[in-house]
Amino acid sequence: MNLSIEGIGVVGGFGCGTDALVSALLSGQCTPEDVSVKTPEGPLNMAVFSAETSRLEEFVNKRALRRVDHFSKMAILGSYLALQDAGKLEEDRSRMGIIIATGYGAARTTYAFLDSFIADGDTFASPTTFSNSVHNAAVANVSMLLNITGPGLTVSQFEMSVASALLTARCWLEEGTVDSVLFGAVDEYCDILGYCWHRFFGDRATAAHDMDPFNFDLQSAVPGEGASFFLLSRGGGGSQYGSIKDVYLGMTDRYIETQDPGTIFFIGADGHKVCGANYKRFLSEHAPAACYTPLYGSLPAGMAFDIAIAALSIKSGEIFPSMPLKDERPGTDTAGRVLLPRTGPICCVKISNRGELGTVTLGL
Amino acid sequence: MSPGAVAITGMACICAPGSNLPECMGSVFRGERNFGAPMRFASGHAAAYPVFEVADDLALLETRNTPDISRTGRLSLKAAFEAIRGAGLDREFLCSKRVGVCMGTTVGCVMNNEAFYRAYLEKQYPNMADITRFLQSNPAAVVAREFDLTGPRQTIVNACSSSTDAISTGALWIRSGICDIVLAGGADELSHVAYNGFASLMITDSSPCKPFDRDRKGLNLGEGAAMIVLESEGLRRMRGRGARAFVLGFGASCDAYHPTAPHPDGRGLRRALKEAIASSGAEEREIAFVNAHGTGTQDNDRVESAVLNDMLPGVPFLSTKGYTGHTLGAAGAIEAVFTVACLERGRIPASAGFTSPDLRLPASPAGREMKIKGSVAISESLAFGGHNSVLVFGMGGDAT
Amino acid sequence: MTLKEKLKKIIVEELKLEEITPEEIDDDMPLFGEGLGLDSLDAVEIVVLLEKYFGVEVKSLDEGKAAFQSVNTLAAYIEERQAP
Q1: Given B109, B131, B196, which is nearest A135 (Cβ)?
Q2: SS3 assignment for B56-121
C-alpha cells in the first residue's frame, strides 16, 4: 500500500523548515560550522553541519522543555513542523503512532551520563540524564508533548534505520493499527563522534569541508545532524507531496530490479570512501542519479532528508539540481545543473559499507 | 485460530537460569534464583544490588568466523543457533528464503564504552577497537550477517518493551508477506552504565527482587537473550512442520505521561491489553495466565495489579523477573518464550520473590506452582518512557 | 550564602528552572505538585544533588518524601545530618 505524505518537518545544517531546505537546494549553498575536536595532535577544527532548535519556542513553552536535550529537541521540532505543514496541529492523536529512526541515539546525553559518575563516583550518576540517554527518550518526549497515544517505536540500524523503520510504519497502516504515523529520523553530532571521525579518517576528517559524493574514491564526508519528520497516512492520493510507494531493505548483491523506467535515483552517498565502491557499482546499472548530501552532511538518519527532498520535488514538479552544484562529471548521467522535469518515480537509495541496501520509492 | 495467527516453529533462551530453554525451564520450575553481585564490573555503590548474570563467557560460539562483537551480539547469536536448530532449519535453507531479523535491545545499541571514554577524558587518545566493535555489534545485523540473510533487519530500542515489540513487528512482517521467516527476539548484556542508571533512579532493590510483594523495593538487573522463529503458514506447511505455538495478536500504546513512571491508572496498558486480546480473537475464559512485566518497583506492580484485576479478574498472573532479573531489551523475548513454554507444559511456576500480599494491591500473583486451564496466554511489557506492549499466544499444533 | 540560599540556587540551576530566580522561591513554597511543580524524577535528582553538594545520603524515597516538601524542610534535613 502507498503511504501518503501529508506533512514534512525538517531541521538541519541548512536551517529549519521546508522553505529553508528548498532555499538551500536552489542556491546549492550550505556552509558547515567549525567545531573543535580533541586529537593526539592537539585541538583541531572540523566542519560539521549543526542544527539549531530555537524555533521550538513557536510551539512549546520553555518550562516544558527544561529537561529535554538537543536530540529530543530536534525530534520535537521536526514533529511540530510536520504536523503544522499537514495542517493537523489541532487534531486528536489517539489513533496516531510514532516511529523514530536513529543511528546513534541521544549521543551527547549518553556521554553526559557517563560524565555524571566517571569523575565523582557511581553514586553521583544523574537519573535525569540517564532517562534522557535511552534511545527511545525522543519518542517518549514527543508523545508526551503531542499527546500521541498509539504505539511507539525507536529503530536503530545505522544507515538502514530509515528504510527498516518505514517497513514497520507501512505495516501499521496496512493493518489499521493506526490511522496515521508520525515518522521521523534524528541523529546528532557529539565530541566523541568528532574524535572518532579524526581517528578513522585522519587528515580527511579535518580537511573535508565541501562534500564531493560522486568522487567515490575520496573521503569527503562532513558530519551532520538534524531531524526529518513526516506525517504519513494510508495513501488515498491527493497529497501535494505524493506518497511512498515502495520500501525495500536487503543486500545490494541480491537486489532484484523492480524500478519503473524513468525512475530518478537520489543516492545517499555521503563522502565515505568505504561505501563509495558500493554506490559506484549501483550507479553503473541505475541512472539518472542525483545527490543532496552536501546540503545536510553525513549522518545515519540522512536518508530521511533525501525522502523530504524527493517529496518536495514531487510538489514542485521538478528535480532540484544535484550537489555539489559546481560538479562537472562528464560521462556520469547525473541530474545536472538545470532543473529537469520529473518524468518518473524517485527512488531514494542508501547503501552501507557492508553492502546493505535500503530503497524508498516515491511517486504521485 | 484467528486469520492473523503467526506460527512459532522454534524457540531459544539464555539467561541466569540456564544456557538454553530446557535448562531455563528446569531451573525455574525447581524454584532456583541465580543472583549475586556483578561479576564483570565493580560498583562504587555502598549497597550491592544483586544481578542475574549469565555465567557463560560465550567465548566458544559456533560462528562461521570469529567476529569481534559485543557480549550482547554473542548472546544474540547463542539464541539464534538454538532457535534455528529447534525449528529444524539450517544455513542453506535460510539463505534461500526471505528471512528477516527483528531484535530488541537497549545496551546493544548505545555507544557508551566506559573504558574508551575514560581514556578519552584522560587524554590517552584510545584507539578505535572498542568503537569498531560497537559498529559491528548491532544485534539484528549480527544475526543477519552470521546466517547470510538478505531479508529486512531491524533493531528496536524501546527500553523495557524492545523485544516484545520485536516479536509483534516480526509477526507483522510475516502477515504482510514481506518475509517467509522472521527471527524475532532480544538480547542485552549486563552493563555497569545501566546499573548506575537504575540505581540513580532509586528503583533497584539491594536484596533479591520481590515482584508484587508487600515489601518490594525495586528491580534487579539481569542479562540474556531469547529468540523465536516466526514462520508463514505457506512455508510451514510445505516443510510439514508443526507449530509450537502461535502469536495470536498484539497491542501497543504510549502513555504519553512521564519519562520514567507509568501512567497511574495504567491507561496505556489498558489500551494495549484490550487491543491485543481483541486482535487475537481469544475469549477471556480461554486465557490461562498472564506473564506480567512485574519488575518489583512500587509503581509498576501497583499499576499492573490494578489493570489486570480490572480487565482479567481471576486470571492467574506471575512475574518471572524473580528468576531472570530485569533483562531490559531481552525481557520481552525471554518472557514470551517462557510464556509459550508454560503453555506447552500446562503449568506456571511460582511468581518468584512473592511471599506476602500487598493489601494495597487488588490482586496478587500466583504464590506457588500451579496447573493452568486454557490454551491462550499473555505476556506484557511496560517500558521507560511510557510504552506498553502486549502479546497473546495460543497453543500450537500439528502441521496439518 | 546561607544554606537555604545555596539550596535555592542549586534547585534552579541543576533542575534547569529557567523562568524563576532563586530569590523568588519562598522558604515554605511546596516544591512538588502545586508550587514549584517538581515531579518524581526531580526528587531522585535532588537525592543525588544532596550527596554531591552536602555529603548527605538519602537512603530511601520514603525518607526523602517528608524532607523534600519545601526549602525549609530540606534545610532542616541537611542540618540534622551534618551535625558534628
Answers
A1: B109
A2: CCCCCCCCCCCCCCCHHHHHHHHHHHHHHHHCCCCHHHHHCCCEEEEEECCHHHCCCCHHHHHHHH
